[in-house]
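Field: sequence (string)
Field: structure_tokens (string)

Example rows 1 and 2, in order.
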Amino acid sequence: MSENLDQNADIDTLTLEQARGELERLASEIAEHDRRYHQEDAPTISDADYDALRLRNAALEARFPELVREDSPSARVGAAPSEAFSKITHKVAMLSLDNAFKDDDVRDFVGRVRRFLKYDPLMGALAVTAEPKIDGLSLSLRYERGKLIYAATRGDGTTGENVTANARTISDIPQVLTGAVPEVVEVRGEVYMAHADFQALNTRMAANGGKVFANPRNAAAGSLRQLNSDITASRPLKFFAYAWGDMSEIPAKTQLDMVRIFESWGFVINPLMKRCESVEELLEVYHRIEEERATLGYDIDGVVYKVDRLDLQQRLGFVSRSPRWAIAHKFPAEKAFTILNDIEIQVGRTGALTPVAKLEPVTVGGVVVSNATLHNEDYIKGIGQDGEPIRGGKDLRVGDTVQIQRAGDVIPQIVDVDLAKRSEGAEAFVFPTLCPACGSHAVREENAKSGRMDAIRRCTGGLICPAQATEKLKHFVSRNAFDIEGLGDKQVDAFYQDGLVMAPADIFTLEDRDKQALTKLRNREGWGAVSARNLFEAINARRNIDLNRFIFALGIRHVGEGNAKLLARAYGSWGVFSDAMIAAHDKGGDAWTDLNNIDGIGTIVADALTEFFAEEHNRAQLDALVKEVSPRDVEKIDASGSPVAGKTVVFTGSLERMTRDEAKAMAERYGAKVSGSVSKKTDLVVAGPKAGSKLKKAEELGIEVISEDAWFERVEGS
């Protein structure tokens, strides 16, 4: 499990430092859940819990916009593609959708669209399409001159897996398009499995002693991602087309008309898709589809709304991981009762003790669930945000009959306890004050500024705690860090226990030590000559790694993927970065000031970095590591062709020709970096009416200041 900050704390009470740490935790935890869902087809958290994490992240970003991270879940799609398939880079990114959960969220969505477009009601109805949200696996199909060229999964949104051979076996996917077709066509949609086909497949698999799938989505994803296309061909997969990517020509002016054209080309489209002209009509479609959900014959988990006019979609653009012109209205979660058999404590890489509920397996909506995250000890006691009661203040005890809630995946959340069924001898759960891994004291720290206790209890064992040491090593080799194939959790645990890998550098000396040792890796249980050779090759393939991934892999607290990218971009090379971090420990010097002036890096992150590099043991490990690996320098921005490429730009005041989001997107298209504050490293300030302190500071520093009109002249005249 991932370690948490106080995930139940009221956002309105958080300090800037607490919010920064909470955003770092959420980014890391959501990324792991994305990996398990998109790569492994094996989610370990319910849709409801996952959505709650994203909602909390969005609420934090709304209150603290200056803390939005580059690796924010709001800026990330899916997970990195599997190494088992060759990769395909999407010419147009495959993005995810923001979620709505209540009718009022839909009203807010339409209101935001109107405000962004300055779409006055007097201009007439704002048409929006509504269609079922299929619970399957996203797929992009590229056709050239009407013939299928390749098929790719979503992957991380930028790069997907090449599953062309498998996609060709799906009867709903035409090999050749019919009718008048543009030169290049990229049709996107969802691969899924019908309920009846799913049940028949599981019956057949069980009879043959094979794997039984948890739900139709996992079955569809697992079938499409088979290395043997003959297996895929034997699976009853279907495909709905509903979107597009790279197109040499757009043959329609609206979303609905585009999808209808797909049908004329030979694709299957969803018959329930409808164009609506009011919020009330959208909600009517939503509730009708919700009522019909059980009779559709395939899984859906909501309804998707999209602004119909394509020219308005283009104006609306995107916000990080999702389009402004679309949203997914999710269905409520499903519930069931079961028994809480045990509460286990897991220790994370920063020493966080995380409780996990072990449940009597129960089927909810066709999925067997047996675990639930319990967050922290207050959650077990029935205490929520700011000491407010949750579950009516009922605590959780081993043996309790509990109500669980899920919305399509595996692990649910516990929403209630049936006290009438609690046994008389049931004892309140006592959260450990000693680390179960090393026996060190586990404490809840008090925030000096707020006076509140951290919701998370942490082991104080540090380097002597084997759980923390192994979790740090697992983080180091994880997919978004060094991504060493064949060195998974079980291998890390075994190598650490046997003294083979105690620190990151040991991974890269493993082969040399194996050659010299009498006991060879290939002779260990579960290993052979081929698997040992494959591991050594995978390790050697990672001796050169991007600087941002190297920094992230170090597991420095508060330094997630986003901050690692910010730091890599700011310093450019490992030598410059490491020297600067050592120098920044003197908080009165220029190095400390430069570090804090990086947009997105605050004092909490800066403190964590400098303290990490000040620790002699850490520096010794880093010295040993960089003897084995070479972090790649960051490529410098090509400043040719754009007058603002590589420059740091600040927008301030009221912008009249574009919204602030449009301004940021425009600047980034021209290669500029947008900052939220003015410093001596700012190159240009674009000031609109009512510009205040930022304008004043720019004038004091002698930074060039131009108007919004001058900005357009500068970039569009380039």
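Row 2 begins here:
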Amino acid sequence: MMKIWKLSHGYNDIPKELSDWLDEHNYLSLHESTKKSQGQHFINQVDIGDIVSLSRSGDLKALVKVTSDILPIENAPFTEGWVFRQYEIIHELPSLKPYHGDKKGWTPNYNGTFFKVPKGEWQEFEEWILKKYYDCSLKDLGVTQIDSKNSSQFQWVEKCRATQAFDNFLKKKAVNFTVLDDAIRVISQSNLNFDFYHVDHVESALRFGNRQLDSTRGKVAGQFEVYKGRLIVWFPERYGREEGVAIELTDDLESNEAQLNAELVSNEAFFKENDLAGNKHLPRDYNNGDPTNSDLATHMTTTSTNLIYYGPPGTGKTFTLQKILKEQYTENSTSEELGVWLNNKLSDLSWFEIITLILLDADNDLSVSDIVNHEYFIKKLALNGRTANIRQTAWAALQTHAIQDSKTVKYAKRIEPLIFDKDTDSKWTIVDKEHELIVGFREQLNELKAGPPVEDEIKRFEFVTFHQSYGYEEFIEGLRPVTNDDGDISYVVKPGILKRLCKRAEADSKHQYALVIDEINRGNISKIFGELISLIEIDKRAGKEHSLTVTLPYSNLPFSVPSNLDIIGTMNTADRSLTHIDIALRRRFEFKELRTDYSLLSDNVDGINLRKLLFTINKRIELLLDREHIIGHALLMKVSNLADLKQVFITNIMPLLEEYFFEDWDKIKQVFNGNGFVSELKDAHTTWLGDSDEYAAKSYFVDSKAFDEIENYTAVYQGIDDKNFVELFSEQEQN
């Protein structure tokens, strides 16, 4: 299938004589080691027939079609590593034409060499490039149907696009919109009257079933999935249904419609008996865009969130976080906006570093007025929240780092490196611009001038784990020692992880950011958050009705928490060695419990029903201890045979139960229904204590051979009526 690319031949890499040689032979060229895998994409991902928007350092040049694979060219006037493809011209401009328009990775004004135009943005490419500069359309290029997430032709998909989670499903999974739209139409128009909605923490972004208009959850009849590039509608095994059914959807729409209708009609009684169908309506958030749904993905993209996942170990807290971070806070094959990217680059720089870059950027000496009016200085002021003593800030940095033998600077307390000097007209310069220190600054300046690169991934989140010694200095800000070449130590204020992320979020209000705190209850909350415990409240965020700002104790700068920063934590409820979570933090967070999901486990591993096995063990743990110490599904997720199961029981489950019950072996035996895993050592008293056994306890041992017998595992849940396992299926919908 045809793809569209942008290729820019820059003046720095390809001078005019080489560009003319490429034009003469109709060659596209790129160096194989071009950063961010762009060279490899040119080699491996381009096909004959692909369209390329050819530009020259920001100016549009021609629209061409690729006509060859990579060509072996001898005696090319290029150094080793350059690769070539032939093209034919579709439209050529009479001269280079400057591009004026919005900026994306595939536009000429973006600092990137080779970039694919995402299919979802083909319409924008048509409006911004094709029609405006080449007077042609996608149809002229042979595109008869735009399979785009923005296309209004997919009306059934559009009805379900109100939630961010479904929008991400469309973007990331390369869904065939035509097929998906047709499948939604068939299901929506069936006489069973299914509702479409999103359910928290599920792999698929769109499920369908039945629920009341004002409810937040409902029973699920089926779901859409993408597997190895194929779109599948899946009717899972649940509610007593004997088996699941997967229908692979193809480009044959009539076949899809016939298969779906056959499945719906044949299961009509089943769907109705289990309250999966019957009330025809789309939920409000899908019907008119009103975000009243309480599902996590929607909530997180419409308002700031303070949320803590809690539950026993192995219930998927970390997995859930990773999935959310991937879907909500990660963007692939793109670049940050120039202003946001530049702010991130400048935020961690000192005033000395900022001024050094400004002086290098100038062709001549600069006055303090020139320096404070430079873009970098102004941005740094905004990042630090500075509105006063601006010129003094510049003077202090310049004089502190002035050379010792300066005839115009008499300041006494100087700090290495000493590189600045001032002339009699009060204009400043860098004395030795060939100094090895300056080489690094030149590279840094060139990077800033080049602009944001195309990133494989942009992560708009930070991850931290709390522990007993973690403190305010690491989290907010603190003093850090800095040593110069002479071994002298000075102290500077360094921002912590929360402050750094807040600055990123402030500079990029269009996107949501997240701070993820693993094991949040392991830290000293009062010590870590300090005065910021009030600022994280939703209504105290910047721009909100009751917004608060505090002055930080180390930097003496004003600080507030932006509204587009989410704080998400995890908490292991089984760890009783920890103090209870701080009440001040508890009332500022929502709590979402994650329980064991038995539906993820197999019901037949060498004749053992893992779902019933773990469910039974956990029910007994709840009765003998409490519900916070149940065992999570993660331990058994990868079990595929008896040997795997034995390994998990001996190395994970048995040690866990020994710790839970403080080696109360009688209770551990009760957990396993006395199946032989734990046995009493007969005649132990007589052997080792003789008749002096009045106060002696019983002696137990774990019989490793017992874990080789299938019957010992099934004995755990045998004798229990199947009606007691109904919760295995219904509980998952509640979670």
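free_text_note (row 2): The chain has a mean pLDDT of 80.
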